[in-house]
Structures are given as C-alpha cells and as structure tokens.
Design brief:
Layout (H helix, E strand, L loop, with lengths): L2 E4 L2 E4 L3 H9 L5 E3 L3 H9 L1 H8 L3 E2 L4 H9 L5 H6 L1 H10 L14 H15 L2 E6 L4 H12 L4 E6 L5 H10 L3 E5 L4 H12 L5 E4 L3 H5 L8 H5 L3 H8 L1 H22 L1
Helix pairs in contact: 2-3, 2-14, 4-14, 13-14
C-alpha cells in the first residue's frame, strides 16, 4: 500500500474506495486514524508507536498531514520553513497542490458515516463503545434512523478495561467502533484484538460519537472544507482545545520539517 512516513510511522495513502476494498477482503483488523497530535505522541512514546505500527490501516486524519507532506518535498529545511506561512495561506483557498501525497483525508468523524453504510450493505453487526454517558446511545438512535437495516450489536460508555472487553464478547459483533480518544482507544483496541479473535475489525473514531449524537456541534461545512475545523473547536472549548490545536497547527509542522 502507498504510504507517507511521519517519524517512522507509515500513514497509508488511500481513497475511500480503496479503504473499503481492503475491508471487503477482511485484511483490516485494527484501524487507526493518526492525526498530528497522535503522531507527535508516538514520536516520544515507544509503546504507543509500536501499537500504531502493528495496526493494519493507518488512515490520515488532519490537514496538517497534507501540508507537511507537501512541504517536505522542498529540498532544504530553510526553504521549507520559509515557505510555511505562505503555504498556510494558499492551503486555505486552494488545496489541490497539497493532495498529491494523500488523495483524501479520512477523519474519524467523517469515516464513521460511510463505514456504517458499508456495514449495513454487508450485513455486519456493529458495537459502539466509548464517549460520555448517553452519547453512544444518542448516536445509535440517530444512525438507526439513517440506516434502517443497520445491525447494532450494542453500545456502552464503559471505560477501556476488561469489563468493556467482556461486554463486547457477550454481544459478538463483527465490528467495534471505539471512541475513547487517543491514546486510550488504541491501547484498548490492541489488547481487545488479542482477547476477541472473532471481531473482524476494531476502528478508532476519536470524538465522532460526540458529533453524530449532537453532544458537540460540528463546524459549518465551509470551515471544514477550508481546513479550519480546529478554529471552531477552539471557539467552543478554548481551555480544552488550545494545547491540542497548538500542537496540530504549530508544533507538528515545525518538528516535522526540521526532523526530515
């Protein structure tokens, strides 16, 4: 599979069609969606990096990956940093030059909807795990209206522990979507995959259930297309989001450009 390397972690470069083709073949047991924050964490956390490397699909989540993968094609670090600010401005209004490394971004939030379409078509049962109390239940109610034939095996906000593994084992789903946030969800998925051999795929989806349940209002579409969803999240939750957004927008590009 095509991939782009960040800190020794290959992030796969796939279209949605190619991604679901791999799911059709049953060759994607552990699916993660690395974003700038996840990749920076793995850079200094060997255990976390090992888990990401042992996953079957690493789907690109975050516009920073598009920006950095394009700038790294410039031959010198000096020129990369020099063009960083102009590249940011260009990126806001014209993204085509930045899509050569990754044909599409596959955010956990955006990936969940087509994943459920695929699950309904293939008659796969699905278990929703994580998020705050009541969030998974509201998301399930929404999805059952959207996909009348979707087979929901169950849902739970149980913490990432052995109890959660037991809950999933009892329901025998084909797929488990995990919304604990990173890195908790990746560590739990890695453990659960060893204890639940009959589950076809575990998919980390971060905060997707918060959006689809209506618990958190998602950014307007035009902001998402501009790659400015982070600005919307900062407006809604400034104290919670500032550090994460600083990491994604400033820290990740600079460290990436200097480390290559």
């Amino acid at each position: 599979m095509r991939s782009v390397d960040f800190f020794g972690i290959p992030v796969h470069s796939l279209t949605l069609k190619e991604t679901f083709g791999i799911l059709d073949q049953g060759k994607a047991r552990l699916i993660v969606t690395p974003n700038p924050e996840i990749l920076l964490n793995a850079r200094t956390n060997p255990k976390f990096k090992k888990i990401l490397l042992e996953s079957d699909l690493r789907l690109p989540d975050g516009h920073g990956l598009l920006l950095v993968s394009t700038l790294r094609k410039i031959p010198t670090t000096f020129l990369r940093v020099l063009f960083l600010a102009p590249a940011y401005l260009l990126f806001l209004f014209y993204k085509k030059p930045f899509k050569k490394s990754f044909p599409t971004l596959i955010h956990g939030s955006d990936f969940l909807y087509p994943l459920l379409e695929w699950a309904e078509e293939k008659k796969k049962s699905i278990f929703f795990l994580g998020a705050a109390p009541g969030v998974a239940e509201k998301a399930v109610h929404f999805f059952q209206k959207e996909f009348s034939k979707l087979k929901v095996a169950g849902f739970s906000h149980e913490d990432p522990n052995e109890t959660a593994i037991a809950l999933v084992k009892a329901k025998k789903p084909d797929l488990v979507v995990v919304a604990y946030g990173s890195p908790k969800q990746e560590f739990w998925m890695h453990q659960a995959a060893q204890e639940l051999p009959d589950v076809e795929s575990f998919i980390g989806i971060g905060g997707a259930l918060d959006f689809w349940s209506g618990h958190i209002k998602r950014a307007p579409l035009f902001l998402r297309k501009l790659g400015l969803e982070w600005l919307w999240r900062l407006f809604l939750e400034p104290k919670k989001r500032f550090k994460r957004i600083w990491t994604a927008v400033v820290k990740f590009p600079l460290i990436s450009l200097f480390s290559e």
